[in-house]
UniProtKB/TrEMBL annotation:
Domain of life, per lineage: Bacteria
Name of the protein in question: Resolvase
Taxonomic lineage from the root: Bacteria, Bacillati, Bacillota, Bacilli, Lactobacillales
Coiled-coil spans in chain: none
SMART domains attached to this UniProt entry: Resolvase
Gene: bin3
Source organism (scientific name): Streptococcus thermophilus
Similarity section: Belongs to the site-specific recombinase resolvase family.
Gene3D superfamilies: Resolvase, N-terminal catalytic domain
Domain Resolvase/invertase-type recombinase catalytic span(s) in chain numbering: 2-140
Pfam families reported in the protein's UniProt record: HTH_23, Resolvase
InterPro entries noted in UniProt: Resolv_N, Resolvase-like_N_sf, SSR_resolvase
Length: 194
């Protein structure tokens, strides 16, 4: 049985020291600085590949594993499928309950409640951000994100030519290095159609 810690912060201006201090008793530690909005995080994937049956995955808060209910459920299912258990340090401990089934049931119930809370908090943050942007727009203070490509950018024009020659958005993205969604957005903006 190995105690495996996972620590994550979203940006480099945040501090991971508190998490590392709380995880100082683990046998193996995975840590990274990356948004929790996406499950495809290198150290999370490495940790999921590392765990074995009987291991205990330790996080300081459930939000370290992910910020929305779907991804949290997927990560927790991955941990459980490997025969490992999850210990969340800021959740109430259930060690005093001797019946394994009851302890597991209560633990899953608590985790479901915390997943819901994490998802609801993420949605509140997004809504406050939308409201702030709307207010800034009415005051003329918000201009949006700066465009990646100018209208006469040679790489973008080349991408349009490839598309008009019959290549798919995905193929154009591979050949030009422009993100597929970004290319599609620019194509729609400039009304490039076959």
């Amino acid at each position: 049985m190995t105690r495996i810690g996972y620590a994550r912060i979203s940006t480099s201006d945040q501090n991971m020291a508190r998490q590392l201090e709380q995880l100082n008793q683990v046998d193996k530690l995975f840590q990274e600085t990356i948004s929790g909005a996406n499950k495809n995080r290198p150290q999370l994937q490495a940790m999921l590949a590392y765990i074995r049956e009987g291991d205990i995955v330790v996080v300081t808060e459930l939000e370290r594993l992910g910020r929305n209910n779907k991804e949290l459920t997927e990560v927790m299912n991955d941990i459980q499928a490997k025969g490992a258990t999850l210990e969340v340090l800021n959740l109430p401990t259930l060690r005093g309950i001797e019946d394994d089934n009851l302890r597991r049931l209560l633990n899953n119930l608590i985790l479901e409640l915390y997943k819901y809370q994490a998802q609801a908090e993420r949605e509140r943050i997004k809504e406050r951000q939308r409201q702030g942007i709307a207010i800034a727009k009415t005051q003329g203070k918000y201009k949006g994100r700066k465009a990646i490509f100018s209208e006469d950018d040679s790489r973008l024009l080349h991408a349009f030519d490839l598309y008009l020659e019959g290549l798919s958005d995905k193929d154009v993205a591979k050949l030009t290095g422009i993100n597929e969604r970004t290319f599609r957005r620019y194509r729609e903006k400039h009304k490039i159609k076959r």
